[in-house]
Amino acid sequence: MLLDEPLIFERGSPGRTGWRPPPAPDGAPDGAVEELPAALRREDALAGLPEVSELEVLRHFVRLSQWNYSAATTFYPLGSCTMKYNPVVNEEIARLPGFAGLHPLVPEAFAQGALELLAGLEAALAAISGLDAVCLQPAAGAQGELLGMQVIRAHHVAQGNPRRRVLIPASAHGTNPASAALCGYEVVEVPVSARGLLEAAAVATVADESVAALMITNPNTLGLFEEEIEAVAATVHARGGLVYMDGANMNALMGIAKPGDMGVDVMQFNLHKTFSTPHGGGGPGAGPIAVRAVLADYLPVPRLARRDGRLAWLEEAPRSVGRVRSFYGNFAILVRAFAYIARLGGPGLEEVTRLAVLNANYLRARLAGVYHLAYDTPSLHECVFSDRLLQEHDVHTLDVAKRLLDYGFYAPTIYFPLVVKGALMIEPTETETKETLDEFVAALRAIAEEARTDPARVRNAPHRTRLARLDETRAARRPVLRWRPSVR
Amino acid sequence: MSGYAPHTAADVAAMLGAIGVDSVDALFAQVPTSLRARARLELPPGLTEPELRQRMAALAARNGGPGAPVAFLGAGAYPHVVPALVDQILMRSEFATAYTPYQPEVSQGTLQAVFEFQTFVATLLGLDVANASMYDGASATAEAVLMARRMLPGRRVVWMARALHPQYRAVVATYVRSLGDVELREIPVAADGRTDVAAVTDRIGSDALCVVLGYPNVFGVIDDVAAAAACARAAGALTITVSTEPLALALVRSPGALGADIAVAEGQSFGLPVSYGGPGVGLFATRDRHVRNMPGRIVGETVDAQGRRGFVLTLATREQHIRRERATSNICTNQGLCALAVTAYLSLLGRNGLRELAEVNYRTAHAVAARLEAAGVPRRWRAPFFNEFVVRAPDAAARWEAIAGERGVIAGFPLGRWYPELPDALLVCATEVHGPEQIDRLVGALACGGRRRRAAEG
Both A237 and A293 in a single domain? Predict the structure, then answer.
């Protein structure tokens, strides 16, 4: 059974302390804090913070954890998120004191192991992307996108004109238009073909000298490889534009095609997807970018460089776009990704892609006909179905997603991509067994059957979870965004 | 092969049969052969798990180990004890391997923890409402400036304190550059190490968007937020405070109480190791009336179909997956697991432990400052500080790296690297991790230079 658990603020008793710090060293005067002028002192004595024991805290969070589905507890086929197994050995490695306890401002002589690791990761990502220079600084894919677009803008400014517009296919991630807009660009949506693909001809009709870049996801959010990518890139390049690739779906490409060969100029990786770092309930991730040599001068500072036989950070780079975060990036995440790449090696990463695509195509084949396949075009690492075949029973994508939870599966990504009405976007990843996929297929088939025989059961799902459907409208209309003491 | 992928030969054959193709290669037929021909990865073969552990341990050992120098370094990343319990909770796979809680019925653990996180952050920063976290303190600062711009679209001058962490100022510059018309102006440092708001008061006019200052500032000094806020308010601009070391807020008046409209912080101090600078977690809070301009994910309380309390992601109409290019921010993920660390840490220490820890930090740093002063290494400024302070030590600043090797102590951070006007300054941070023997080593290393200088002057 799943036990109830109040907010931590609703537990405890005044005067209780869960953890006490070591004392100040001898010679530190007791009354020192009273020297602080009264006008500077905390006004509320931290009223509202909990007063709980260590065991109360442990029990609180262990209970909360049990209310979560996760990749470790259930199959988590969340499309576009690559919820693969997160190797536990990497957790141990990231916690080595030489990594976890290393202050970012120690003299470089005392950080050579960390710098070697970062240089190794830069080189590996360059090899995988087929591009020339890598910056590990971005904290997430969306920040990588923002940085990538800043680099593109800097390039155009150096040519004398920042340009005005960014082309984005209708099948793009929502972060793409938001990132382009944050860089001051006007977004022009390019329609996709009846096959779900971006055609060079469609790009040619809108690509002119005002276009700074095309942002493309490949494989796209339908899981389809953009077959005309080389021609699309050439079309954009011919008018002086650059090609940005969202690398969220690199799990489909390792050993199959390198973005640099496709004509891509800038891309971001999502290390928490392709390279197995834990998603953490929504971060921390890491979104390094890779660029062509001609753009390397614009990358953020500091840059890693070899100097007098050792690695060092170079702070000076006159054409750099600056920084997107403090220090050097989410180092502990970069450690895990480096360990993953080292463990699998080139052949292992190529195998990852082959098996991820095998798993996705297996699901697609077994579910076709039971659910409506949005596009018949062959797909790679994920597949997108819709609720079209269930609509006559007034059962919709959201209902299917909720009912899946009853069967012990997390839901696919739903209602995305926007080009498919009622989308169910399924990405199994390579680390799932055939048996798990078969069980998932059986569940989805059973739900389709229930939609015919007992649609209310599907519409009212979930039934077996700790809570039933939550009232999201109420949450937005009357926002309660924190606990307050008066509520107690 | 690593063994992370589970396929047997029989599995592969059966799956290919179900798909109706005769090889895995056939699944990639839509990829042009021109690309496939060049796609081999030029990477070494994989390692076994023992080989991997050995290789990574060797890399980690090159950074430190038992003989590594003791670092009195803060400057944006603070060494604190991480209680065993915090990491134990982060290791729970149910938290670590979930994603953004799109399905709230099976994500209540993450959602309730984030709701608690928002409560902690809002309480500590003295404001009404907080988001579910940002990437780090620096990008949170940049997002705060962008938020100010959404609230005051007609204004274009951002007044940033020179005493705000220079990397944070650099990130703000990157984020606002593409807005085109935003201008960054600097508020100088006063003679006592505080931000000299008075020096620019008559220039902060109706074009001012916001005033941004560190609290404590990059020199560890407890800056005068009330004065800055009064000045900003008089001009109709917003006040943004930035706390790289939010543990200080357990002792000093909260940003909200001093008039901040938006307060941000780097949360690394609360339960996260320094990890060579990341991941940390950006804390972001503001007043209720500004909530719809706030960036990032937000969790709200609601009820389920049977009236039981539960939590959901809410106010999503501000976000990129709904509004695309009209979103308040391009942020998709936050720093979920780091926010959990902060939540567990602040729960565990609670009201009493946090206050006590802040006092230990204050007293330790002040004791170290007093000993240095007695040894002829004076503080640069007299303004109040928390657990970090600036000393004048020209020899040690010049021989910083050599001293680390010779005496086994990294004696603060040579500020001349960030502030050319401070070539003789070291920024020294002392917290609860620094014991008596280590403090002796610091004092010994710095006093040596102090003695030499006095002898030369005498």
Answer: yes
Does any CB of chain B come closer than 8 Å to the CB of residue A170? no
| CB A147 within 8 Å of CB A320 | no
CA–CA separation, B38 and A256 (whole Å):
8
- Amino acid A428: pLDDT: 98
* Domain assignment of residue A406, given as a range: 346-474
Record: contact A322-B177, CB cut-off 8 A? yes
Give the tokens for residue B210: 């916001």
Find chain B residues with C-beta within 8 A of A272's C-beta. Answer: 333
Alpha helices in A368-433 (DSSP H): 397-406
Total tally of structural domains belonging to chain B: 3
Retrieve residue A411's tokens.
């839901």
Kindly state the tokens that stand for A272.
Answer: 């928490």
Residues of A in contact with B44 (CB under 8 A): 345-346
Report long-range pairs for B246-249 (Cβ below 8 Å, ≥24 apart): B246/B124, B246/B125, B246/B270, B246/B283, B247/B78, B247/B80, B247/B354, B247/B357, B247/B358, B247/B361, B247/B386, B247/B387, B248/B215, B248/B216, B248/B222, B248/B358, B248/B386, B248/B387, B249/A42, B249/B124, B249/B125, B249/B126
A96, B60: Cβ pair inside 8 Å?
A: yes
CB contact under 8 A, B38 and A127: no
Which tens digits make up the pLDDT trace of A198-251?
A: 999 999 999 999 999 999 999 999 999 999 999 999 999 999 999 999 999 999
For residue A281, how far is the Cα from the chain centroid? Answer: 11
Same domain, A322 and A448: no
Indicate whether B107 and B57 sit together in one domain.
no
CA A447 to chain centre: 29
Residues of A within 8 A of B336 (CB-CB) are 279-284
**Is residue A141 a contact partner of residue A285, using CB atoms and an 8 Å limit?**
yes
pLDDT in tens, A134-181: 999 999 999 999 999 999 999 999 999 999 999 999 888 878 898 898
**Vertex A38: Cα angle to A37 and A40 (nearest 5):** 70
Q: How much is the pLDDT for A487? A: 47
Is A370 among the domain residues? Answer: yes
Does residue B335 share a domain with residue B237? yes
Q: What DSSP line would sit under B44-83, residue for residue?
A: PBP--HHHHHHHHHHHHHTT-STTSPEE---TT-------
**Least CA distance to A79: which residue of chain B?**
B99
| pLDDT for the residue B67 | 76
Residue with tokens 């599966």: A409
Give yes or no: residues A253 and A360 share one domain: no
pLDDT grade, residue A44 (50/70/90)?
very high
- The answer as to whether A202 is a domain residue is yes
Helix (H) or strand (E) holding B343: helix B336-374
Chain A neighbors of B318, CB-CB under 8 A: none
**Domain membership flag for residue B444:** yes
How many residues does this entry show for chain A?
488
Measured distance CA(A415)–CA(A279) in Å, rounded? 21
Predicted local confidence at residue B392, as pLDDT: 97
Complex-level ipTM beyond the 0.90 threshold: yes
Q: Mind listing the pLDDT tens digit for each residue in A351-386?
A: 999 999 999 999 999 999 999 999 999 999 999 999
Nearest chain B Cα distance for residue A302, angstroms: 11
- Cis peptide bond upstream of A479, omega within 30: no
pLDDT of residue B450: 58
Distance (Å, rounded) from C-alpha A435 to C-alpha A443?
12
Q: Nearest to residue A319, comparing CAs of A301, A293, A343?
A: A301
Residues of B in contact with A481 (CB under 8 A): 115, 118, 129-130, 291, 298-301, 314
A86 contact B CB<8A:
yes
